[in-house]
Amino acid sequence: MDGFNDLNAFVQAAMTRSFVEAGRRLGISASAVGKTIARLEQHFGARLFHRTTRSISLTEDGARLLVRCERILAELEGAEHDFARGEDTPRGRLRIALPMASPFFSPLLADFSRIYPHVELDVEFSDTLVDVVRDGFDVVIRTGAAPDSRLSSRKLAPFRHVVVGAPRYFAEQPVPSSPSELNAHRLLFYRKPHTGKLEPWPFASDVLPASFGARGSLVVNSIDALVVMTIEGRGLSSIPDYLIENELRDGRLIRTLDSHIVGANAFRLLWPPTTHLPPKVRAFIDFFTTKLSPKPTRRTRR
């Protein structure tokens, strides 16, 4: 296999969905493109395209290969550009994954784009765990410990989960004085999309009632929906403090049981291990390190 040229032919065929058009772009015949694809399929032991007499389309294996190839070719193109111009200006497509806390991160991304206008951000908001290398991400921000010890990582800002309710809720229900009283309240829970498990509340397990959350509870898999339902007085919930700074400040939400809360969490930057970070990745890491560590300039929900 002629690595770079064969992969480039594959990418062109995938983008144009035509061996003829791919060949025209590469200056070779359609049959040469077809032979290249056949060679790649033999090399990988997988069918990359569905073929008919009139069209071609990627198989599932082909789609996975395309993600990796686009990243490889983009990095090579970026390296050629940087060396040709003798500069290290951040530029090119940057694929990142962030938690489903878009109101918190979106202003930061806008600031980054203003500072680095030549970097094209491709952002995936999701609380699902991603495979940084396999899924082709340049940088990922997640909470908790790094899921893969092989990844490079940097710990960012700490945050805490706080228990909150709306004034309209407390107008009808007493403010709890200890976690043991929570079963007398309507409770709202967040279900983690990647595990299907409920987000634990920030208390030591031995202070919670045995049937915690068994009655009158509501479960959602959207943190934004959890915030809205809590503001609407549907019950008490446990929410990361950075998401509700405005709501706490203007009185739409009220904290309770602070003295019983234990532990803290933190954001973490993750990226594939490499001996040379592309300028765009370095810029992103440095920007978010400045903004979110050690004492972040928090951007709040609007």
3D architecture notes:
The protein has 302 residues and is of the alpha/beta class. It has three domains: 3-80, Winged helix-like DNA-binding domain superfamily/Winged helix DNA-binding domain (Arc Repressor Mutant, subunit A, Orthogonal Bundle), CATH 1.10.10; 91-158 and 265-292, Periplasmic binding protein-like II (D-Maltodextrin-Binding Protein, domain 2, 3-Layer(aba) Sandwich), CATH 3.40.190.10; 161-260, Periplasmic binding protein-like II (D-Maltodextrin-Binding Protein, domain 2, 3-Layer(aba) Sandwich). The chain is 36% helix and 20% strand. The chain contains nine helices and twelve strands. It has helices at residues 3-16, 19-26, 30-44, 60-85, 102-115, 167-170, 223-231, 245-249, 279-292, and strands at 49-51, 56-58, 92-98, 119-125, 139-143, 152-159, 161-165, 187-190, 218-220, 236-240, 254-256, 265-271. A five-stranded mixed sheet has the order 4-3-5-12-6, covered by helices on one side. Strands 9-8-10-7-11 form a five-stranded mixed sheet. The protein has a two-stranded antiparallel ribbon with strand order 1-2. Strand 3, helix 5 and strand 4 form a beta-alpha-beta unit. Helix 1 packs across helix 2 and helix 1 crosses helix 4 (60-85). The longest helix is centred in the N-terminal third of the chain and has 26 residues, at 60-85. The relative contact order is 0.15. One of its GO terms (molecular function) is DNA-binding transcription factor activity. Belongs to the LysR transcriptional regulatory family. InterPro entries: LysR-type_TF_proteobact-type, LysR_HTH_N, LysR_subst-bd, WH-like_DNA-bd_sf, WH_DNA-bd_sf.
